[in-house]
Amino acid sequence: MTDEDRFNVGPVVSSAHLANSAMPEVSEMEFAMAMGNHAFQRWMTRCMDAAGASGMAPLEIQVLHLVHHRERPKTLADICLVLNIEDTHTVNYALRKLVERKLVTTGRKGKEKTVSITDAGAELCRKYGTVREALLIRSLKATGIDPAEVSRLAALLRAMSGGYDQAARAAASL
Question: Is residue 37 part of a domain?
């Protein structure tokens, strides 16, 4: 057996029993997504620490950025829809913590409760963006990653999330 044969292990997966399927590449992608998700969550919290707001959970950070997006008030339903979150309680809890930190404020749009970014929240998002640009974006650009490939990957992941959503609905009906 040559060294080349010995190290030809196939796709990198965490569950070989799931990779033994009609499409083992999905297991490879799932493992990469799991690793990427954990790294992304770790990055978000560390970036926010560096921006001056320690102790924030990844969901709080995502919600904060989404509330700041386009500087328009958002409802709980808006936030859950955009982030594809079913459990509104987790988002509601994140919002409460952001209100306590005075990063978002509540209001009303008819009968619906809304949340808006505060000046302190907008400033924190700006600082986060500065840290992100300096530490993450510069290093990614230095690797020579093609931005068009990143965009294609994002589109593929969004499309695949629809497949997972549909499969989850089917599994719930069994």
Answer: no
